[in-house]
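#structure-requests
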Amino acid sequence: QVQLVESGGGLVQAGGSLRLSCAASGRIFRDYAMGWFRQAPGKEREFVAGISWSGGTRHYARSVEGRFTISRDNAKNTVYLQMSSLKPEDTAVYYCAGDFTIIPRSDADGGTMDYWGKGTLVTVSS
């Protein structure tokens, strides 16, 4: 089992920045590809970013590419999502997820992730 706990969410003005963290415990973190997904009120969950176990491969949703950066520190069992130039449409609950097999890169991959955190709320005001 892997337990995932997100932190770092909050209220920020448009144009601002936030860094989300996802701390993992349990099974060997470095064996898992990790990803960030988000769900806005009244909308379906969507893929945001994914990273391989080594950090050498990263994928981003088009809506966040160039503004968000996913990274991981396997020594700290933590994956990060640095968010910059935030927009009101980035408002959502952000979830981290882990998978032993795939590096997430699409909304559909959310259906196959092995482990999920409980989420952290990001609110971007205009």
